[in-house]
Design a protein that fits this description.
- With about 210 residues, the chain is an alpha+beta fold.
- The protein has a single domain, classed as Lambda Exonuclease, Chain A (Alpha-Beta Complex).
- The chain has helices at about 5-15, 20-25, 35-40, 55-75, 125, 135-150, 185-200; strands at about 1-5, 80, 85-90, 95-100, 100-105, 110-120, 150-160, 170-180.
- The strands form two sheets. A five-stranded mixed sheet has the order 2-5-6-7-8. A three-stranded antiparallel sheet has the order 1-3-4.
- Strand 3 and strand 4 (about 95-100) form a beta hairpin.
- Helix 2 packs across helix 6 and helix 6 (about 135-150) packs across helix 7 (about 185-200).
Length: about 210
């Protein structure tokens, strides 16, 4: 694991790699960005959107430290670690990086801590979180497994329900994924990422994929 002195240096370093949110675009699982849009950004044809002023994104960034601290209090058996502007790379996948919200030690096992905040305003959005996590977040965790080679992951989600006619309320959920249960998914994802990287290096436009998964 390496870290960078400030956010600007960290953001600049990230542009040379495929990250966790990029991975979902590559397999058609990102509802906001296609694989073609990602390719345009990675080849310099289009500038990535600056989401720093997005209200929901800003809330998630500001809440992360508090939610990580609450996780540590709720799960004292885990040793939780974090470093600002962290970046993990792996020689097996030189095109990929992972920037983690935290990581854990549970005896000899190492784990990924992923933190999400979401506003639930429809039945369809609510269904994405029922006994599962949204597909784009699942893909992100698969990517992190590949890069970090850790044994398990826990996604801590703070869900804010805003249903018309009702008072908003918050609910916290924890989802655990064991690497041994998703090895085939990891292998498939990294194969697709490797293919996508060739489109970048060869400057060839990939075929458009829309919500394939």
């Amino acid at each position: 694991m390496r870290s960078y002195p400030d956010r600007d240096a960290w953001l600049k370093a990230r542009t040379s790699y495929i990250g966790g949110s990029d991975a979902a675009c590559i397999v058609g699982a990102n509802p906001w960005k296609s694989n073609l849009r990602l390719w345009e950004e990675k080849t310099g044809r289009r500038k990535a959107d600056d989401l720093g002023e997005n209200k929901l994104v800003r809330y998630g960034v500001n809440a992360e430290g508090y939610l990580r601290a609450l996780f540590q209090l709720d799960y004292p058996d885990y040793k939780v670690f974090y470093q600002d502007h962290n970046m993990w790379v792996n020689e097996r996948y030189p095109f990929a990086h992972a920037s983690l919200d935290g990581w854990m030690q549970d005896g000899e096992r190492k784990g990924i801590l992923e933190i999400k905040t979401a506003t639930i305003s429809s039945a369809a959005h609510k269904a994405q979180w029922e006994d599962q996590i949204p597909q784009n977040y699942f893909i992100q965790i698969l990517h992190y497994f590949a890069v970090t080679e850790m044994d398990f992951a826990i996604l801590k989600a703070q869900l804010k329900f805003e249903i018309e006619g009702k008072e908003p309320f918050l609910q916290t959920r924890h989802y655990r994924i064991n690497r041994e249960d998703v090895e085939a998914d990891i292998e498939y994802l990294m194969h697709r990422e490797k293919e996508f990287t060739r489109y970048i290096t060869e400057d060839r436009q990939p075929p458009l994929i829309l919500h394939e998964i």
